[in-house]
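Notes to self, Glycosyl transferase:
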Amino acid sequence: MAKRILFVTEAFGGGVFTYLTELSNQLVNDFDICIAYNLRDQTPRDFESFFDPRVHFIRVNSLTRSISPSKDLRAFKDLKRIAEDYKPDIIHVHSSKAGVLGRLAFTGHYKKLYYTPHGYSFLMQDSFALKRALYWIIEKAVALTHSTTIWM
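result:
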């Protein structure tokens, strides 16, 4: 039986979309691939056609870009449930929001937990300094989880 990889992203558009398309299509011959995602304006309407038909998708409506305590708690629970149902051998979370929620949800339960930021929220120049400082504190705290960060 092929090992299972669960990719998690809230930023399912632009560069993250391209990265996940390429990576999934390369790995699907050797792994069972599932992508937990939510749509963005940049997500192609026919996004599934970019992927090998063996790639599985689970939409997570609660996984949104903006900070919302109620939606974030729901997303945290949804991600835990998805992992319990899918039983991945490897989890790879992408971008800041999925990175924070995923590392919190999966730490201690999965030995192979990876995070690729694709760009840190605390570096966004169009955000207020206080907001960037909050993102930096959150990122530093979550960096203490047992995950491996992959920079690109």
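- The beta strands are 3-9, 31-37, 56-59, 90-94, 113-116, 148-149.
- The longest strand covers residues 3-9.
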